[in-house]
Alpha-glucoside transport system substrate-binding protein (Nocardiopsis composta), 435 residues
Amino acid sequence: MAEHRRRARGTAAAAAAGLLVVAGCAPGGGEGPAGGGDLAGVQLKVAAKWTGVEQDNFEEVLAAFEEQTGATVSYEPTGEDTGAYLGPKIEAGEPPDVALLPQPGLLAEYAAQDALVPLEGDAAAALEENYTDYWRELGSVDGEAYGILLKAAHKSIVWYRPDAFDAAGVQPPNTWDDMVDTTASTLSDSGTVPFAMCGASGWTLTDWFENVYLSHAGPEKYDQLTAHEIPWTDDSVVQTLETLADVWDEPDFMAGGTDGAVQTDFPTCVSQVYGQQDAAMVFEADFVAANAAEAGATVGEDAQAFPFPAVGEEPPVVVGGDIAVAMSENEGTQELLAFLASAEAQSTWAGLGGYLSANSQVESSAYADEFTQQLSQTILEAGDSVRYDMSDQVPSQFGATEGRGMWSILQDFLRDPSDPEATAEDLEAAAKDAS
C-alpha cells in the first residue's frame, strides 16, 4: 500500500493540489485547510467494500487529501458484507473513522444504534451546497444528516461487445422481449453465449430483479414493496420472477451454463465478456467501465452499453451508491468527509473512470469519456420515476447479507427457476424475519 501511495501522490495528489491549494479551496469549501490548521500526524482509517480498480482509484483520491492536509489515511477493505465487517468493530469500540455504506438501510440501523456521528461544520456545509434534496435525505435519519453519497451507480445498463453483435447481425434491443427472443436467441444460434452472469455475487441478482420489477410493476408498487406494504407473494413479484426465468431458465444463454452462472462472481463476469470473450453481454452498473478497461477494452468502442430494456411501458432507471459516514469523533474525520463531498475530490475520481457523482457541482467534462458524461446527466436530471436500489433500502439482513435473504434466495432461483411462487414465499418469509 505504501508503494501505491507514492505512485498516487505523483498523479491525483498533484492534480488535486492544483485544484485545492493553489485555488485556495479547502475540503469543506472554506479558506485554507479545513478547521484552520493542518492535520500533520493525524491518522485516519477508512473502510469500504471496494477492491481492485475501484480501490486503487479511491486510494488516489485519499492520497490527494493526504497531500493537502498532512494526514495519513489507511484503507481497510470490508469485503462484500459491509455490515458483517463493521458489526464487530462497533462492538469492540474500534470502528473506522469513516465508513462507506452501500445501503441506506444500514445507515438507518447504525444511526439507531448511535454508532454514527452527525455531519458537522464544513462536512455539513458541503452536503448542503453540493447535493440536491433527494440525495441529502438519502443520508439523513429523522432530519439529522449523517451521510454523503460519494459514489453513485447507474444500475440500469447492459454492457456488450459490438463485434459479437455485428457478427450475429443483431442490434441493441429496446424491450425485454426483443432482448430475449431476438438478441439473445440469435447470438446463441450463431454460437455466441449471450450473457456472462455474476451469480456468485448475490447483489447482482437483486439488480436484475429490481430493474424488471420497476419496469413491470411501476414506481408506486416498487415503493410499496420496498416498504413491505405489499407482501413478496404479490402477483407482481411472481410475474417478475417468471420474467427473469426467460433468461435464467436457459442454460445456453449463460456462460458456463447454470453452474457457471451461479459460481461466477463480479468482476470475473466482466472479464468473461471483455477478456476471454466467452459471452457477448453482461448486466451491471456503470462501474463495469473500469473493469472492462482493465480487461483491455476501450469504453465507447469495443465496450459499449445500452439501457436496460423495457419490460413494461417504460425502461427502468435504478440507482445505487455508497454513502460516506463518520463513525468517530477523531480529529480529521469531519475534514475528510468535507473533502470527499467536494467537487474537486469527486472530479479527480471522475477522471480516473468507473465513477459517477451525484454532486451537482461536478461538471460533465470531468469524466473521461462521452458515455460516462451522458450517464452523469441522467443521475443529476433523474425524474420522479427513478428509484434507489431496493435491496439497499430494506433491512440489510434481508437485502444485503451474503448467504441470507434476497441474495441467497435469488441464487437458489438462478439454480432452479421452475417455481416462482415458492421463491416469492421464501422472499416473504425472509422479509418478515428481517422486520
